Amino acid sequence: MRIISGKHKGKRIIAPKKLPVRPTTDMAKESLFNILNNSYYFEDIALIDLFAGTGNISFEFASRGTTDLVAVDLDYGCIKFIDKISKELNFGISTIKGDVFGFLKKSTLKADVIFADPPYDLSLEDFSKIPELVFKNQMLLEDGVLIIEHSKHMKLSKLEHFSTQRGYGGSTFSFFESTPN
Q: How do residues 130-166 score in pLDDT, each as one tens digit?
């Protein structure tokens, strides 16, 4: 994986092969950040990265100037890797090792952008818990957005707060907002 823009533009990051992850492709990530670029000043926002995996999305936000970053993942190896790269690149990403659903139920954190990249084989019922818990616990700041990455075969458009979706290859980003368009 590589960082596409910002302070560390072009930096290649090699994740250990043993991590149980499927990183967002560079093409999909670049497209996502082109969309976000029109809505946010990255230096001024807070990010919560759920199912953070390799930290790919967190690293991209950090390289673009975001300093209020929290990455959540259940896998110790993933958290250890994010901590290592964050320290090497002086990103200051806070990590939480834990179950994302447990985190969503208890967290009092709020963010402008919450990004979730759960395993693609999660059930629709489990996918639906993500926006349900984010909005129930009012985790988004004003004008904030929840973005869920999922397989193009998973349909989330019927879920409450759904706003829009964009597809890139086999991946889709579904956007959820407090007041959908």
A: 999 999 999 999 999 999 999 999 999 999 999 999 9
Is 58 inside any structural domain? yes
> Structural domain of residue 68, as residue ranges?
26-32+44-176
The string of pLDDT tens digits covering residues 108-119 is 999 999 999 999
Which residues are CB-neighbours of 97 under 8 A, at least 6 positions away? 73, 74, 75, 76, 79
Angle in degrees, 0-180, between the axes of helices 76-88 and 56-63, rounded to the nearest 10: 20
* Whole-prediction pTM: 0.95
For position 72, which CATH number holds? 3.40.50.150
